[in-house]
Amino acid sequence: MSELKPYDDNQLKVIVTQEQIEEKIIELGKKISEDYAGQELVMIGVLRGSTYFLIDLTRKMNIPFAIDFISISQYSEQASSTGVVRITKDLDVSISDKQVLIVEDIVDTGLSLGYLLRNLKTRNPAGLKVCTLLNVEARRIVEVPVDYKGFDIPNIFVVGYGLDYNEKYRNLQLIAELKRPK
Ligand code: PRP
Fold it and tell me: How far is the centre of ligand 1, averaged over its atoms, from the C-alpha of 27 (Å)?
């Protein structure tokens, strides 16, 4: 069983258990392996939240692939309507003519992913798809494709399994709603 050990007085409520995450990752790893068998695949983790998911997901895959990471700046409130985001750490590998799978921990407004998709498309990948552990349809500002999805969740503030609140809780092995102190 997953134990919740909050660092402080914040209130946490389990939304997705460790067991549910593990099962889903086995399922996703199998599906991705089948879909990309025989193709040259680059798995791209979007720093930093997706790291736990990316590593665990790739452990459940049985095909060859390359791993790379990209980091983008957080958009400001002001920029959120325009989706202005910039790359703060770019890929090290070329994705030209390769199959690319972007791995996210969460797709919320879709602004980060929308930007990434537009940017990576200009590099002429053979294919460009998206895998996210969590999807929050209710928060969408821009329409983005989600090809592989772990869980749909409502518009709540979640932490754990890579997701943070002021850098805390990323290492929880489950997803919990955090009721932030007023
Ligand atoms: C989170 C998450 C996505 C993005 C999703 O990253 O990892 O990249 O936000 O939100 P959106 O759909 O509204 O654009 P965050 O900026 O919190 O950085 P982190 O992963 O380093 O914690």
Answer: 24
